[in-house]
Design a protein that fits this description.
Number of strands: 28
Largest sheet: 13 strands, antiparallel
Number of helices: 15
Number of domains: 3
Structural class: alpha+beta
Length: 629
């Protein structure tokens, strides 16, 4: 039973919504019809209930085109000050991974959109997944944001002391003298309270009203921000309306100016996760744990550098390129609790945007064929980048394999795929032309998405660069013999060369031992299409100049093949893999079974070539991968 007191409790109900680019239209429609529209309709019936909204620019833009009536309903709530809409980044970015200019640009883009449609700049902003670093305080302040929101766990991590009821007061924080107010969000408590028995809510809220008045407090500082998830909104708001009048349902803009004597706090850089009991995690660690996320991040950094270096005097093209770049900064790709990274369409939308930005950069010039070396992957090691006006091919020394293959006319990365996750070890990024050495008795059915049973995977071994010829756009790698390793007497030489619309690869395998060795060699490669089935791609095999369709339902065996042709239906391109030797093998789709939904990621080709070498002898073959429209 609550003790009578003249104190009050301010409750800020908030809701958020976002779907990343690449999400099917049906998912947008489902979110709007099942959550957004019912929430707005219910709120309109209960005048006592105030609410604050944050919807990403991506979602608002979709609603504007499909359900413009929503804007009239929301504007009516805003006009009578029953609702407040928050700003943030237009493309729902992970702000902590953005350079200063992108942070400001994304916030201003959404602010401009909201001001255009609702006639007022937002005063506060929402941070996706509440990913925080102290350096955010400055740009938020500079963009006119007076307040933001962090999880109550982050208040605890900042050593902020709650009152006797466990309620944290808002705090101020600063960076280089620029101050912003931070409201605490009770994510776990709000989920437990609002998703439980609605009849119990008024009493539970009454029990939270402070029983003692702080001498320095007029009651405005007793604030709880509760996140409202999908529920029966009519029932929820009906019960909330019955709460004691000392429970005040308000919006932050209404009470912000009355806050006073706030403590200062500096919040740790953690990424909170409502789905995980272990909340304290360095947000950037996700990039180290998931090389696929790191690959998109590295590409983003690279394109950002190109924009700033090559479009300095062209403000129009620079702005257009930046807006494409910003589409790839979606926090769903970099958030530990989101499935965005595992969603092939979401990743492909990010790569598409980044490559469209590159096309804008090169709009007025045709890049000459080139070979350059720089640390693209941000791993401290130089990568080898082959480029012309149609192809970007990125090769790393570990495995001497391709980790990104862009076809510029279609803005498509044919190596956007996802590795099978193994909880017991760190995942490795899938690449193309990764080498396997395996026992001679290895059969086609021994090949699979985990590799070759009993085989030696050279894709994780470090190849040494033996020659770089920038003029001929040619680089050679060597994997030296490794005594004690399976087939450790074998030396592998790989020579890459950029040719017109294609990459060629020459192999030389040498037995450096004295005894004869018999084994099988497999240079595996992945290609990522829009999806499975003949509506997305078809496969033709070439034997002695004759082409025939490969019956492919996600897994097929190959026999005596000299070339494979992949007809990419979506992009209207033809990808041809040619070999100087005939091979058997297996072709199958990659569908990770853990870490996310088991959906199509890529199609893997594993050629199987028998090799028998006497001591000191060598074996040669060549492969080429050509892409044409």
């Amino acid at each position: 039973m609550a003790i009578e007191t003249d104190q009050k409790l301010n409750i800020i109900l908030c809701t958020t919504g976002h779907l990343p680019l690449g999400t099917p239209d049906a998912d947008y429609e489902s979110l709007y019809s099942n959550e957004i529209k019912p929430l707005i309709s219910a709120l309109d019936k209960f005048n006592r209930i105030n609410m604050v909204f944050h919807y990403s620019g991506v979602l608002l833009y979709w609603i504007e085109r499909r359900h413009p009536e929503f804007f009239m309903l929301l504007e009516d709530l805003l006009t009578r000050k029953q609702a407040e809409i928050l700003g943030g980044g237009f493309y729902h970015p992970a702000f902590i991974l953005l350079p200063l200019a992108d942070r400001i640009g994304q916030i201003e883009m959404l602010t401009t959109y909201l001001r255009k449609h609702f006639g007022k700049r937002p005063q506060g902003c929402w941070l996706p997944s509440m990913a925080w670093e102290q350096s955010l305080a400055g740009p938020l302040n500079s963009c006119g944001m007076s307040y933001t929101f962090l999880d109550d766990f982050q208040f605890f991590a900042a050593s902020v002391t709650p009152n006797s009821k466990g309620i944290y007061s808002p705090c101020i924080t600063e960076e280089q003298g620029k101050i912003i107010t931070v409201f605490p969000v009770y994510e776990a408590f709000g989920r437990e309270l609002l998703c439980g028995n609605h009849l119990e809510i008024p009493g539970k809220l009454l029990d939270l009203i402070p029983t003692e008045k702080n001498a320095e407090d007029n009651g405005e500082n007793e604030i709880m921000v509760l996140h409202v998830g999908k529920t029966n909104y009519d029932n929820l708001f009906a019960e909330l309306s019955k709460a004691d009048l000392r429970v005040n349902f308000t919006c932050p803009s209404k009470i912000f100016k009355n806050l006073h004597s706030l403590n200062k706090a500096y919040f740790p850089g953690v990424w909170t996760s409502s789905a995980s009991p272990v909340k304290e995690k360095n947000a950037r660690q996700f990039l180290a744990d998931y090389p696929e996320a790191s690959g998109i991040y590295a590409k983003k950094v690279h394109v950002n550098t190109l924009i700033n270096n090559q479009l300095r005097g062209d403000k129009t093209r620079k702005r257009t390129a930046l807006e494409e770049l910003w589409k790839a900064e979606d926090s769903c790709i970099f958030c530990p609790e989101s499935s965005g990274l595992f969603n092939s369409n979401v990743r492909k939308a990010a790569y598409h945007a980044l490559l469209e930005a590159e096309k804008i950069i090169n709009d007025k010039k045709k890049p000459p064929p080139s070979l350059s070396v720089f640390d693209f992957n941000l791993d401290g090691i130089g990568e080898y980048v082959f480029q012309d006006d149609r192809i970007n091919c990125f090769i790393k020394s570990r495995g001497a394999s391709i980790f990104e293959l862009d076809y510029i006319p279609c803005a498509w990365n044919y190596l956007d795929t996802m590795a099978v996750r193994n909880n017991s070890e760190k995942s490795k990024r899938r690449c193309s032309f990764t080498d396997w050495l395996a026992p001679y008795e290895t059969q086609v059915l021994d090949l699979g998405q985990d590799g070759i049973k009993g085989g030696r995977f050279c894709g994780n071994e470090e190849y040494e660069v033996s020659e770089t010829d920038r003029i001929r756009r040619r680089v050679s790698f060597v994997l030296h013999p490794v005594p004690g390793f399976p087939l450790g007497e074998i030396k592998i030489e790989k020579t890459w060369q950029l040719k017109k619309n294609s990459m060629s690869l020459e192999y030389v395998l040498k037995n450096t031992g004295t005894a004869q060795l018999s084994f099988v060699f497999c240079p595996a490669l992945d290609l990522s299409f829009a999806g499975e089935g003949e509506e997305n791609f078809r496969i033709l095999s070439v034997r002695e100049g004759e082409k025939e369709s490969v019956t492919f339902d996600g897994d097929s065996t190959l026999s005596n093949i000299r070339a494979l042709e992949f007809q990419d239906i979506k992009n209207e391109t033809l990808i041809t893999l040619e070999a100087s030797r005939g091979f058997n093998g297996r072709i199958f789709n990659i569908r990770p079974e853990s870490g996310g939904p088991a959906e199509y990621q890529s199609t893997c080709v594993m050629p199987l070539l028998p090799v028998s070498l006497e001591g000191g002898k060598s074996w040669k073959m060549s492969l080429s991968l050509r892409i044409s429209s």
